[in-house]
Write a structure and sequence with these properties.
about 375 residues, 15 helices, five-stranded parallel beta sheet, alpha/beta, Rossmann fold, about 10% strand, single chain, about 45% helix
Length: about 375
């Protein structure tokens, strides 16, 4: 019995030493990630990125370099971006797909567009204003803030995400000027309050203060996932995470996810705020392009004539310079590759891999770099 007690005590002592070492290592070598969270609160448009940040981000098992420029936009380097520029500028905006969760800037479609624009004899500068969890009300508010601050650009390209409808149906009411949503504005932050980072999750704190432990748990999870196989990752992404996009698929009941406005209310609010954005840009003689793309559920359930496409194609008929539909490009890839999910999407996720980002880049590059409309 004393041998068992000694073994338990030794195991507990070893575990304590492991955590103590991990905490010391993490706080000494990763202190910037703890003291300088690059995701910041903004009373004008909910949240953004800290300017001039140089560090790392973590998404699932992915750890990747994360840099921002002086405007608080994700970039390939920490650099000063003047408000005015002699070269043509195209502002990209969207949510986590545009920010490029889980991949380096160089492997993102925004990074590829930036590089291609810089390689031209008549340069085009692509600026990436996308941030995770943005939706139309925040597209409008952020671009309005940027214009008021004196930033100049020659075109805005909105990468309209399928999750926008859920976001507009359920949240960000505090940043919407329409009085019909006042009833949902409970506990709104003070407009003149100091910017604060969003509250950390337990998982986020674990990763910040116990980096080695967090990485070890990721490796264990990856090993367990590998036993289940790629099909399990795909199904998890489609049915668990992908439910946010399933409003376009009539056979899937996801209505409870869209309270209080419901799916139709989320669509109506999305269109209202995109109209505000289109009108704002029209006043400044800045053309608007909208791009739509699929999530795994749309590909899996053969949503080739998606409501997402029809919605924004109709909107763009009156409000846009150009509308770009990437559904056919992704369906062509799916039809040609049985392992389309593993190639295009991060394991167990709906966000694009470097190959998925390259597919987006290849599909939009000519039209954004040459100004062709269709």
């Amino acid at each position: 019995m004393s041998f068992l007690k000694s073994g338990i005590a030794l195991a507990c002592y070893s575990f304590f030493l492991w955590l103590a070492f991990d905490f010391t290592y993490s706080t000494l070598l990763h202190v910037e990630s703890i003291k300088q969270p690059f995701r910041t609160y903004d009373a004008r448009y909910s949240h953004g990125l800290m300017p001039n940040f140089d560090g790392f981000a973590i998404w699932g098992a992915q750890s990747y370099r994360f840099l921002t420029n002086s405007l608080g936009f994700r970039d390939g380097s920490v650099r000063n971006v003047p408000l005015k520029s002699p070269v043509q500028r195209i502002l990209l905006i969207g949510d986590s797909f545009t920010e490029a969760i889980g991949v380096s800037f160089e492997d993102s479609f925004a990074g590829m567009l930036y590089r291609a624009g810089q390689e031209r004899s008549d340069k085009i500068e692509f600026l990436n204003a996308g941030v995770l969890s943005y939706s139309p009300v925040l597209y409008y508010k952020k671009i309005k803030t940027l214009l008021a601050g004196g930033l100049t650009f020659d075109e805005v390209v909105v990468f309209s995400d399928l999750s926008d409808v859920e976001d507009e149906a359920t949240t960000y009411f505090c940043f919407d000027d329409d009085p019909q949503y006042d009833v949902y504005k409970a506990n709104c932050p003070a407009a003149d309050g100091p910017p604060q980072p969003p509250p950390s999750t337990f998982r986020g704190k674990l990763r910040a203060y116990f980096v080695v432990t967090g990485r070890s748990l990721d490796m264990l999870k990856g090993w367990l996932d590998s036993i289940q196989g790629a099909q399990a990752h795909k199904q998890f992404a489609i049915h668990k995470i992908g439910a946010r996009s399933a409003w376009t698929i009539p056979t899937i009941d996801v209505k409870s996810r869209f309270e209080p406005l419901g799916i139709e209310g989320g669509i109506a609010r999305s269109c209202k705020n995109m109209q505000l954005l289109a009108d704002l840009l029209a006043e400044q003689h800045i053309p608007l392009t909208i791009i739509v793309y699929p999530w795994p559920p749309q590909l899996e359930f053969n949503d080739r004539h998606s409501r997402q496409v029809a919605l924004w194609r109709e909107f763009c008929a009156k409000n846009c310079k150009s509308f770009i539909d990437l559904f056919p490009v992704f369906f062509a890839f799916k039809d040609a590759h049985w392992d389309w999910y593993e190639r295009l999407f991060i394991e167990g996720d709906v966000h694009y891999t470097p190959q998925g980002n390259r597919l987006v880049f290849q599909a939009v590059a000519q039209r954004l770099l040459t100004g062709e409309a269709k």
